[in-house]
Amino acid sequence: MTNAAAKNPVVQGSAQAQMVSDDRVDEASDEGFKPLTREEAVKIRASNPPVSLWWVVAGQAIVGVLVAVAAWLFTGQARMGWSAGYGALAVVIPAALFARGLSRQKAATQGGAALAGFFVWELVKIALTVAMLFAAPRLIAQLSWLALLAGFVVTMKVYWVAVWLRPGRKESIKKF
After folding, report:
1. Closest Cα to residue 142, out of 90, 86, 88, 94?
2. 3-state secondary structure labels for all residues of the chain
């Protein structure tokens, strides 16, 4: 380290950080880190198939209908069913638009473009969801916010169920 660097704590700190970083790289190579071969990577991908966005959207639509019917039957009031159904729609319609946007973008060859596209479609999904929630009182007569929220939350949680029940999951669990 030079004399000027020793006097400047910022330079000294970055030099120390560089030395620590170099030590970690050396430790990783010493621990026997070995990159996957092409065959190993293909095998891992085959045992962990990705969840289709359209499968998730279909599951959300089915759950949304079930929540709306359950709210209607449980309370005996049609307005509760319509409110819960609209809450489910506030999840399903933006999710379908998001899935459509991402499926059209599969041809993106650069990672940065794909990531930017993902964020743009996520922003569109959020904006549409907020717009639908703001429009709810004008579109649903005698809106029940509690039923709308129940439909919204239950339908949104289908993401977790879809990941849990994804195809090929049982085979990957058995390996561990």
Report:
1. 86
2. CCHHHHHCHHHHHHHHHHHHHHHHHHHHHHCCCCCCCHHHHHHHHHHCCCCCHHHHHHHHHHHHHHHHHHHHHHHCCHHHHHHHHHHHHHHHHHHHHHHHHHHHCCCCCCHHHHHHHHHHHHHHHHHHHHHHHHHHHHHCCCCCHHHHHHHHHHHHCHHHHHHHCCCCHHHHHHCC
Q: What's the pLDDT band for 168 if we cut at 50, 70, 90?
A: low
Burial class (CB in 10 A: 0-12, 13-18, 19+), 70: middle
Interval 32-47 mean pLDDT: 82
The per-residue pLDDT for range 134-161, each reduced to its tens digit, is 999 999 989 999 999 999 999 998 878 7
pLDDT digits (tens, 9 = 90+) for 100-109: 988 887 766 7
**The tokens 């579109």 sit on which residue?**
139
Indicate the pTM of the whole model. Answer: 0.67
